[in-house]
Design a protein that fits this description.
Helix content is about 65%, strand content about 0%. With about 80 residues, the chain is mainly alpha-helical.
C-alpha cells in the first residue's frame, strides 16, 4: 500500500510541531524566571523600605533620656503590711 502525499510539506509537520512546542516551553520558562526575579526584587525593595522606615521611627536622640531617668529613680515602697 502506497501512501500518497500532496507535496505540500505534510511530512514536515511533526518537526514543525516539535520546534513550536519547544519554543513555547522555553518562552514559558523564561517568562516565569523573569517574573520571579521581578517579584523578588519588589519584595526586597518593600522589605528594605519598611525596615528603614521602622528603624527611623523607633530610634530617637531623646529615647535614652527617659530610660536613664527611670533607672535613676528610687524604687517604690512595697504596698501592704510592713512594719
Amino acid at each position: 500500500m502506497e501512501t500518497m502525499t500532496c507535496g505540500c510539506g505534510e511530512d514536515q509537520i511533526p518537526g514543525v510541531l516539535a520546534r513550536g512546542v519547544a519554543a513555547l516551553a522555553l518562552t514559558g520558562l523564561t517568562v516565569m524566571a523573569v517574573t520571579a526575579c521581578l517579584l523578588a526584587g519588589g519584595l526586597w525593595a518593600v522589605t528594605r523600605w519598611r525596615d528603614r522606615a521602622s528603624a527611623e521611627r523607633e530610634e530617637s536622640f531623646f529615647d535614652g533620656f527617659g530610660r536613664w531617668e527611670e533607672e535613676q529613680a528610687e524604687p517604690p515602697l512595697p504596698r501592704g503590711g510592713g512594719s
